[in-house]
Amino acid sequence: MIKEILAVFKSDSYMRRAYDRSFKMLDLTHEMFLTAKEVLREKDELLTSININDQDIEVNKFQREVRRDVFTHLTMAGTDELASGLALVSIVIDIERIGDYTKNIVEIASQHKAELKAGYFEEDLKKIEDAVCENFKRTIDCFKNSDSDEAEKLISEYKWVSKLSDKIIEQLITDEEYTLNARSAVALTLYIRSLKRVYSHLRNVTTSIINPFDRIGYKPKKKQL
């Protein structure tokens, strides 16, 4: 789908600007995510080098601008390029939702106060965090480069993230043998849920590189031999 959008924006200033805005949204939410994770996991005080709320407002502003530019383009171009316009709007919705989940992580940090330690689950949590961080960076790169081969690799390599997240949450809810206190267990559950959702929205962005509009967010169909 991205290649179709690229073909449109090369000949239209509105779509070009909308596409550039989506890049800026990804870069902003990436910075927000890394900062939020650091605040929750590595600091005892809610100190950040950026204001997450201000960044989120900027992301929301870019989303509105993308919608406006796509709408303007479609009113002039007609329905022939409707799928490309709708696809880009769908992509920025996913990026905006990443910003929302990043804000949720900061809210967890503000209520938990101390840096969050996962106890028995620390190794698995670190594995998920590293995967989401790496996936975020690689998603940005392959989205900007319209790299379908890299997109297929990303979808395949990180499909375990959701399953491991669900497994930890299920254990936190059903088992009582772990040494986390109730406050940390609740914070950890909410944090893992947010990580899973960030990953899911990144995956949607990744699928947009490969899939047609109607299959954005779904596993790519296997190629017929």
What secondary-structure arrangement, pairings included, does this model have?
Blueprint: H1 2-9, H2 13-42, H3 52-77, H4 82-112, H5 122-145, H6 148-157, H7 160-174, H8 182-210
Helix pairs in contact: 1-2, 1-4, 2-3, 2-4, 2-5, 3-4, 4-8, 5-6, 5-7, 5-8, 6-8, 7-8
Question: Could you characterize the architecture of this molecule?
Answer:
The protein is mostly helical and 225 residues long. The protein has a single domain, classed as Methane Monooxygenase Hydroxylase, Chain G, domain 1 (Up-down Bundle), CATH 1.20.58. The chain contains eight helices and no strands. The two termini are 22 Å apart.
Highlighted features:
globular, 0% strand, 77% helix, 225 residues
Number of domains: 1
How many beta-strand runs? 0
**Second rung of CATH, namely the architecture:** Up-down Bundle
Helix percentage? over 70%
Can you give the mean pLDDT? 85
| End-to-end distance | 22 Å
Which CATH first-tier class would you pick? Answer: Mainly Alpha
Please state roughly what percent of the residues sit in beta strands, choosing from under 5%, 5-15%, 15-25%, 25-35%, 35-45% or over 45%: under 5%
Quote the CATH topology: Methane Monooxygenase Hydroxylase, Chain G, domain 1
